[in-house]
Amino acid sequence: MNFDLHALEAVLLTIVTASTPLLLAGLGELVTERAGVLNLGVEGMMVMGAVAGFAVALTTGSPELGIIAAALAGAALAVPFGVLTLNLVANQVATGLALTLLGLGLSGLIGERFVGQPGVRLPHLHIPGLSDIPFFGPLIFGQDLLVYLSLALAAVVSHVVFRTRLGLVLRAVGDNHASAHALGYSVIGVRWGAVLFGGALSGLGGGYLSLAYTPQWVENMTAGRGWIALALVVFSSWLPGRLVAGAYLFGAVTILGFFVQGLGIGVPSQLLSSLPYVVTIVALVVISRRRGAARADTPACLGQSFVPDR
Amino acid sequence: MKNRSALTRRDAMRSALLGSVALATGLGGPALAADKLKAAWVYVGPVGDFGYSYQHDQGRLAVEKALGDKVQTSFVENVPEGPDAERAIERLARDGNKLIFTTSFGFMDPTIKVAKKFPNVHFEHATGYKKAENVAIYNARFYEGRYVIGQIAGKMTKSNTIGYIVSFPIPEVVSGINSFMLGAQSVNPNVKIKVVWVNSWYDPGKEADAAKVLIGQGADILTQHTDSTAALQVAQEKGILAFGQSSDMGKFAPKTQITSIVDDWATYYISRVKLELEGKWASADTWDGIAKGAVFLPEIKNVPADVKAMAEKTIAAIKSGTLKPFGGTITKQDGTTVKDLDDGAILGMNWYVKGIDDKLPQ
């Protein structure tokens, strides 16, 4: 029993770490897409966040500064995307893809001298007494800062998007940019904000990888997580609550796959490693269907460039 | 595709930033001198993985150092196994490379395909089994090292549970698991291995996840057949022992790494490039192990002196040829027995030895 509880605790803790980067990057992209901008550069912004976070944490010795640097780096990489797609009206899909390539290449170049250096780990929260409670302590009171931040951000994003005036403007810009413009809102300005926010959160997601998940820098360490985050946004119908569910479901099925393999009961590993994708997609599609097809959550202007008429 | 383009982009940037086009790294640099032999390497991971691809690149650098201005080397990293590999290899052949090393199992069929189109280019494929007139194959007997670390793990485990993180169910990996188990069983009949396939050669996050889950399930020693240092770092954090892979990863986990199975390709690469320069290159099948230094284990640490002495004795016995991991009678998982496996049987291994609970993915 003791052993089982220990195994379960390890599984649950690992699920949290596996899900957090997906949630962070997904939340950023959700806001970006709610404003009608499709940024496929999530992977690139994540990996830039990972390298910047690692580099700053290592040189200053402060993982907290690393987090800030990760967010800034993600946002910084979003700047050329913003200039090209918002101001110069370039194609969002092509620019986003290029951004991923740019991020992967640039991070490799910047990170060259950090390869092979043991990193600085973001400390886990420790509340005397609470964090020491067996099982629940480490799980609820012993995570690192970014885990709490990611969940808090999900709540904040959900509130702002659906319960505030700012959120209304954001959705208006994403659903019908011509009308938003006619009402006097700065479509380009709102989109710039959403793009930078998306970049910053993608950067945070990457920073989580290099500061908490596996505290080290290696090239291409995001290993496709940006693409998974992108897919999660779509399958969660651009709803933050569902995005949390999707990210954690994906993380959970991945980790449970390893757990089942470790039991040695002979379930094919190829099946287990494809399961996270299948289960998450099926689950999110099912939830979305139940809410009724009438509710069109897709931002109507997603991916469309806006040129204000003069 | 994504990765390969990323590299192109990266190299373009590197050139721009350094204001130089004379860099040898990256895809097809300009032909500087016609009399130089152009040799190229294709890697499955980034050269900065500090594992498998890193070791191959160390071999490439050794070639540059040893043969200096007679060769011009280049490499492509992060090449996915599959159709992209074929394009990457073909591009290197078109760029005038005369000797191309493709360094991962999954590059086997792409290499053979491209080799048919370029009969005048010589190819060398690592860890596979398909040869051709202009395709040589080479490999290292990693399994010899795995026997040694299996023995150490068998001695050191207290829970009799060892976690083994693996990539893909190819013969090289399977023979590694078997050799490890045979080594462990030689000193500890009750030992169990928990095998977790992460279905990737290189995904630090997943490797770390697998390590955490295995430790949670009671494994007190970890070993891996994946390329990053992530699992080792998790082991260090949890205060358990582990083994490195491909290169000496001790610097990442000084209190955790017992030893590592280091691939040393330098000697082989230098000898093959020399043959090419002399015009004596011919297709061959090279499979060296601990005896010739193609596989070696850095100093054994973090274990008691008697365990270290035992392991060193085993290494010496493998070196002298008195101990063969797959020699003698071996009982398979299904209860049948085989005797004194030859190289062909080891290279095509698709079964587990008795005592492994995992079912081999087919």
TrEMBL record, chain A:
Taking the first listed entry, what is the main subcellular location of this protein, grouped into a coarse class?
Answer: membrane
Topology term for the membrane: Multi-pass membrane protein
Q: Where in the cell is it found?
A: Cell membrane
Is Membrane among the key words of this record? yes
* Gene Ontology molecular-function annotations: transmembrane transporter activity
Q: Does the keyword Cell membrane apply?
A: yes
Cross-referenced CDD domains: TM_PBP1_transp_TpRbsC_like
Q: Which GO terms describe its cellular component?
A: plasma membrane
Q: Pfam families per the record?
A: BPD_transp_2
This protein's UniProt keywords: Cell membrane, Membrane, Transmembrane, Transmembrane helix
Coiled coil regions, renumbered to chain? none
Instruction: State which residue ranges cross the membrane.
Output: 6-25, 37-59, 65-89, 96-115, 135-162, 182-202, 222-239, 246-265, 271-287
> Which protein, by its recorded name, is this?
ABC transporter permease
Q: Which organism is it from?
A: Siculibacillus lacustris
